[in-house]
């Protein structure tokens, strides 16, 4: 006797039959307006300089910032995040706070070019400016001094806000940085400048190419301030603390290895949630595509889709311009 195989009653494949059907029932979408493109500006550079470990991304000279911002606006993306490489570094990261420091000059250029169309964000952290490469100032014992760093961050925030930044990206992982910076801004009447807190920022191996891009001097690691990759609950705690301290947007970083944290933060947060698809995540796709092992476009689109599906409202990604174009072509 042969067993009768029952015909399926439930057929999820019905909704996958055509391109139109799949598009109709799609649960989440990536829109160019959600994308933020990181830009690297190097003091004293003449012309742009490719970054070997970040194919397609260049260090820009100060006079290239306006064009890069106009290109981003024309592509329809939501914002840019500025990082800078100063000509000189010192233990206190002095150039970070100087009104004529390279990052603050770049912010002014970007803000003038962006107008109201595009959101100009600036990285608020000392690692690009310190000779030792740490995200804060060091105490006598050689360790990063949390509270002394907050005082410098507050000054840096004022410089960035006065230069015209719309959003400050707090990436240093010092305790209390959101509250300290919010208070400094508000005391100075800069109440409309928003804070994007890199809340759950993990001590990750995937920042490697970024450290090439900013010519990092770091010797050692950031494990005493960035989070342990093993900890999910702590990511929720960090995001909740930043929200309570006044963050306007919270972030999880990197993105793909921490999609679980992203999903939980997105479920718990009452403010928008960002995710950073970081340099090493980007570089993996670029390198494999270069070897013919991955379809670059399909891989980048799937990644962006996954990050939005997990709950991100915005994505920082080096692929922002290509993604915007592909999304337009697929629509
Ligand atoms: C610190 C900062 C880093 C990144 C963004 N902000 C580097 C670090 O923490 O070592 C990494 C981003 C990336 O890898 O794309 N200012």
Q: Could you characterize what this model shows?
A:
- The protein has one domain: Aldolase class I (TIM Barrel).
- It is globular, with a radius of gyration of 21 Å.
- Helix 7 packs across helix 8.
- 38% of the residues lie in helices and 16% in strands.
- The longest helix has 18 residues.
- The protein has an eight-stranded parallel beta barrel, surrounded by nine helices.
- Strand 8, helix 8 and strand 9 form a beta-alpha-beta unit.
- The model has no long low-confidence stretch (mean pLDDT 97).
- It is built from eleven helices and ten strands.
- The protein has 331 residues and is of the alpha/beta class.
- The site of ligand PBG has 11 residues, from helix 6.
Question: How would you sum up this structure in a few lines?
Answer:
The chain is α/β, with parallel strands linked by helices and 331 residues long. It has helices at 19-25, 65-75, 102-114, 146-163, 177-187, 208-213, 233-245, 259-268, 279-290, 296-310, 320-330, and strands spanning 35-42, 49-50, 58-60, 79-85, 119-124, 167-170, 194-201, 249-253, 273-277, 314-317. 38% of the residues lie in helices and 16% in strands.
């Amino acid at each position: 006797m042969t067993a009768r195989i029952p015909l399926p009653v439930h057929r999820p494949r019905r909704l996958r039959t055509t391109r139109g059907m799949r598009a109709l029932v799609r649960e989440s979408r990536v829109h160019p307006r959600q994308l933020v493109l990181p830009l690297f500006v190097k003091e004293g550079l003449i012309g742009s300089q490719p970054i070997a470990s970040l194919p397609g991304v260049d260090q820009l000279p100060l006079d290239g910032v306006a064009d890069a911002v106009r290109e981003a606006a024309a592509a329809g993306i939501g914002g840019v995040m500025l990082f800078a490489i100063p000509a000189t570094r010192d233990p206190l990261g002095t150039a970070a706070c100087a009104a004529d420091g390279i990052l603050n000059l770049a912010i002014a250029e970007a803000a003038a070019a962006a107008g109201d169309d595009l959101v100009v964000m600036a990285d608020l952290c000392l690692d690009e400016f310190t000779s030792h490469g740490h995200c804060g100032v060091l105490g006598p014992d050689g360790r990063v001094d949390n509270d002394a760093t907050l005082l410098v961050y507050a000054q840096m925030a004022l410089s960035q806000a006065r230069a015209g930044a719309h959003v400050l990206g707090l990436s240093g992982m010092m305790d209390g940085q959101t509250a300290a910076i919010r208070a400094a801004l508000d005391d100075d009447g800069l109440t409309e400048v928003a804070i994007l807190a890199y809340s759950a920022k993990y001590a990750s191996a995937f920042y490697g190419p970024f450290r090439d891009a900013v010519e990092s001097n770091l010797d050692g690691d950031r494990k005493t301030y960035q989070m342990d990759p093993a900890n999910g609950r702590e990511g929720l705690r960090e995001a909740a603390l930043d929200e309570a301290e006044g963050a306007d947007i919270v972030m999880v970083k990197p993105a793909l290895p921490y999609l679980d944290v992203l999903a939980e933060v997105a479920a718990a947060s009452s403010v928008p949630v960002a995710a950073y698809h970081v340099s090493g995540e980007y570089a993996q796709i670029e390198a494999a595509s270069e070897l013919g092992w991955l379809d670059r476009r399909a891989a980048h689109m799937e990644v962006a889709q996954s990050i939005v599906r997990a709950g991100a409202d915005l994505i920082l990604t080096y692929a922002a311009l290509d993604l915007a174009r592909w999304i337009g072509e697929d629509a």
